[in-house]
Amino acid sequence: MNTGLARLAVVTTVLTTTACTVIPRPEPPRVMSLAGVPSQATFDQALPVNIRVVTPLASDPVDSSSILIKPTPYEFLVYKKARWRDSSPVVIRDHLAQHLRNSQGFRNIVVDTSAATTGLTLLTELSAFHVDQKSNEYQVTLQLHAELTGNRSSESLCINNWAIEEPSAGADLDSAVEAFSRAGNLLAYELTEWLWSCVQQAQ
Length: 203
Known about the structure:
33% of the residues lie in helices and 34% in strands. By secondary structure, it is α/β, with parallel strands linked by helices. Strands 2, 3, 4, 6, 7, 8 and 9 form a seven-stranded mixed β-sheet that branches. The chain has a two-stranded parallel sheet with strand order 1-5. A hairpin with a 2-residue loop joins β7 and β8. The protein is elongated, with a radius of gyration of 24 Å.
């Protein structure tokens, strides 16, 4: 009886070991982010305001870490073995917040994870953040609705919309992320100028 149990244990161990070596380990996904630009001041003087940048509202599949491509008007696909470093709304939020800080146009810029007190809030909705495929041409589409509100009155001070289309050199991941980065930088520059003008007029 003991001999039979011992043999069964040996066979089980061999099978378990063999199974572990046969099943390949999946490759870790490439983790991507938007490339920023060198820090530089856009304004000579900072406006005396503190602004909270809230994570954009979004729905699936934009509200995910998937890098999306849209080969038809009706279907989303994802880049395999790759993802954004966080969900797309968080990536956009951090990108905008960094540009706003680099501009030195505001006393302080915080995001919605901060407990700091602010007088103004930047609310946004991210409705598109993907690669569009039209025949053999590719472009990144980024659509954002923005609204600046006063925290005391909840009044809307300024509202604006962006619909950015940035050509991509190809459908491959590296070309797509480069186009995503250019689109994100264009959005950040234009939103920063708009926000500064809005705050200045509201004072």
